[in-house]
Design a protein that fits this description.
The protein has five helices and 18 strands. It is α+β, with helices and mostly antiparallel strands. The strands form two sheets. Strands 1, 2, 3, 5, 8, 11, 12, 13 and 16 form a nine-stranded mixed β-sheet that branches. The longest helix is centred in the first third of the chain and has 17 residues. The N terminus is likely disordered.
């Protein structure tokens, strides 16, 4: 795999001259307002479910905070368990995710189809996130009739994050990807019922995963700022999940060096023995096509590379090796 040709209009931070105009800022503000008003929704294929769950004990309910209309609930993954709410009212909800364990904390959200059990969902998801091409293709097709992936966050101890999602009445799974293959995986069933409320936090940038000229790309609009929310959108074809993990890019590491490391991966995502130049990176976990989420990640000013570790739903080939990465600067 070679670096993307310089002659191609690579998606990413907009040119400096464009950013300087008042008209540009007005266009961005208008576009972001429009996006926030309508994109926090699951695909039209989702089905409403009326759960028959008993009210949970007070000890397992997450405390809700209401600040300027933003409804926040806490989800925490520890060395031994996952603490999450068992019931919530519908509407826009911001999940504040934390972990105290270095081997936990990739907290995801999904909405299963009616009648789909946790084990059925887990089995399908494990096919998608493994490194065997035929399984990836099979799992991606199965997921269309199994569940909608609604994102989540990759986090680390003392580095909390948030993701915001619109919840319709029904049944959801909150779970930890780091323990999805365990004999006793970490998950909680969330029942959503009642009157809807809540609003989304404002954002200053939009990161969109999409196919551009037949190849997966990230399109970054606006300015990604440390400590500020951003909107992550999956505009990939139907059946293709996408994620966005933000890795700090060490000084002196070039795109060519990154691509040389990417080339060492197996075609379906098997990691090489070479650990590469990247360390820990927070980010947004897999979302189904058509899903969006607002993310507030523990980013610091500097260079980052956004990476998608998933593989193609069509042929099982790793999206990263097809160019699904983007080098950006966080301000």
């Amino acid at each position: 795999m070679s670096p993307r040709p310089a002659s191609r209009p690579a998606p990413g931070p907009l040119r400096r001259a464009e950013k300087g105009s008042t008209a540009f800022r007005v266009r961005i503000a208008t576009a972001l307002a429009t996006l926030l008003a309508g994109v926090l929704t699951v695909p039209a294929t989702a089905h409403a479910v009326t759960p028959a769950a008993a009210a949970p004990p007070p000890a397992v309910r997450a405390a809700a905070e209401h600040t300027a209309g933003v409804r926040t609930v806490s989800v925490s993954s520890t060395a031994t368990s996952l603490h999450a709410p068992a019931t919530l009212a519908p509407g826009i909800v911001t999940f504040r995710t934390t972990t105290t364990d270095t081997a936990s904390g990739w907290i995801g959200l999904a909405r299963p189809r009616p009648g789909v059990t946790w084990e059925q969902f887990r089995s399908t998801l494990m096919k998608i996130i493994n490194a065997h091409g035929p399984d990836i293709v099979e799992g991606s097709e199965e997921m269309l009739s199994t569940a909608d992936l609604l994102g989540g966050t990759v986090i680390y101890p003392d580095r909390p994050a948030t993701f915001t999602q619109k919840l319709n009445p029904g049944r959801y799974f909150l779970f930890d990807y780091r323990h999805i293959r365990d004999a006793q995986p970490r998950y909680r069933t969330l029942a959503v019922e009642g009157r809807p409320h809540g609003s989304a936090p404002g954002v200053g940038a939009v990161v969109t995963a999409r196919m551009t000229e037949g190849a997966p790309r990230y399109e970054v609009t606006g300015t990604v700022r440390a400590g500020r929310p951003l909107l992550f959108r999956n505009a990939m074809p139907e059946g293709q999940p996408a994620e966005a993990i933000f890795f700090p890019l060490p000084d002196g590491v070039t795109e060519e060096e990154l691509v040389a490391w990417f080339d060492k991966f197996g075609d379906s995502g098997r990691f090489p023995e070479d650990p590469g130049p990247l360390g820990e990176g927070p980010g947004g976990l897999p979302m189904s096509s058509g899903v969006s989420s607002v993310l507030r990640l523990p980013l610091q000013p500097g260079r980052y590379v956004i990476i998608d570790w998933l593989s193609s739903a069509e042929d099982g080939r790793m999206l990263l090796k097809q160019g699904h990465y983007e080098i950006i600067r966080v301000h």
